[in-house]
């Protein structure tokens, strides 16, 4: 094997359990057939190169797995608004995560049109960006991308 060749193992090195990973399927009916379409538009896992951590969104929570220590920590959990009488109020969930390339910041998109910026070292939310006038009522933040210190969705 030369120095440019890489061995890829056929067995996993680690297995991370993700029981509440959002299954983003749309149920559609055509004629007498019912079928499911996966939109695959949610970015629920991201690796931070500078922190060597993996962020995983599981329903309404974000967990961080640190490769250096093998520790898993819960960064956040979205809460349901308790002041509503509407039974059809949707349960908030995480729709995307994205690491900043050089800082320990994690951007988190939600199903209720917000982007939260977390400082992972301090485990605090530094900013909440609300984009109510450009999105429809039922829109979510399906993906995020950093460009230096700017975040796009």
Walk me through the structure.
- Strand 3 (45-48) and strand 4 (53-58) form a beta hairpin.
- The protein is mainly β.
- The model is unreliable at 25-40 (pLDDT under 50).
- Strands 3-4-5-6 form a four-stranded antiparallel sheet, with no helix packed on it. It has a four-stranded antiparallel sheet with strand order 7-8-9-10, with no helix packed on it.
- It has no helices and twelve strands.
Q: Largest sheet, order of strands side by side? A: 3-4-5-6
Counting DSSP E segments of at least 2 residues, the number of strands comes to 12
| Beginning-to-end CA distance, first to last residue | 43 Å
Principal-axis shape equals globular
Please give the structural blueprint.
Blueprint: E1 25-30, E2 33-38, E3 45-48, E4 53-58, E5 61-66, E6 72-77, E7 94-99, E8 105-110, E9 114-119, E10 124-130, E11 145-147, E12 150-152
Antiparallel strand pairs: 1-2, 3-4, 4-5, 5-6, 7-8, 8-9, 9-10, 11-12
Short description:
The protein is mainly beta.
Using brief descriptors, characterize the structure shown.
single chain; 153 residues; mainly beta; four-stranded antiparallel β-sheet; 12 strands
């Amino acid at each position: 094997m030369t120095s440019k060749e890489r061995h890829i193992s056929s067995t996993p090195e680690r297995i991370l359990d993700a029981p509440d990973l959002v299954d983003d399927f749309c149920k559609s009916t055509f004629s007498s057939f019912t079928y499911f379409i996966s939109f695959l538009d949610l970015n629920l896992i991201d690796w931070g190169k500078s922190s060597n951590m993996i962020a995983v969104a599981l329903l309404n929570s974000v967990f961080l797995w640190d490769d250096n220590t093998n520790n898993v920590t819960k960064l956040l959990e979205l809460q349901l608004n308790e002041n509503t009488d509407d039974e059809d109020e949707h349960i908030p969930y995480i729709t995307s995560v994205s690491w900043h390339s050089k800082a320990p910041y994690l951007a988190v998109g939600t199903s209720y049109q917000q982007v939260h910026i977390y400082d992972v070292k301090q485990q605090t939310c530094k900013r909440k960006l609300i984009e109510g006038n450009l999105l429809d009522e039922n829109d979510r933040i399906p993906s995020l991308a950093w460009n230096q210190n700017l975040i796009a969705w």
